[in-house]
Protein: Phosphatase NudJ
Organism: Shewanella subflava
Amino acid sequence: MSERYKPNTTVATIIHCAGKFLLVEELIDGEVRYNQPAGHLEAGESIIEACKREILEETGLIITPFSLVGIYQFTANPELAFVRFTFCAELPIQVKCEPLDPAITRTHWFSREQIAQKSAQMRSPLVLKSIDDFIKQQGKHYSVRLLNADYL
């Protein structure tokens, strides 16, 4: 393995309500990019704690993901790869979000079709891929107990 190669563990949460998905908007290198609330796992925190922290920082919402959609591997470039744990949460109503992280410029509720139309602006191809997996699974996601960690 190259010494420059840096594997990273990230978490993301698909937040769904009535056919819409909550995405965060951020400016990266002067360009608008969209993503699920997501980020890196920090030392000393569980994967679920990381999800809750990222959701709070990027949306202002206090949510605990209820199940795992999938674990994805993504190579961003020859020196950077990610293992991304993607979870999901359902909300009964679409709420207005107030991001705490100044890097998040706005939040949006988009349909799957709207997200597909903006695919070139997604932070990674995993945004749409994980939403498609969420839809295909029709509520039959994996228990967070697979993680073998205290999360409640």
About this structure: The first strand starts at residue 6 and ends at 17. The two ends are 37 Å apart (CA to CA). The chain has a mean pLDDT of 89. The chain has three helices and eight strands.
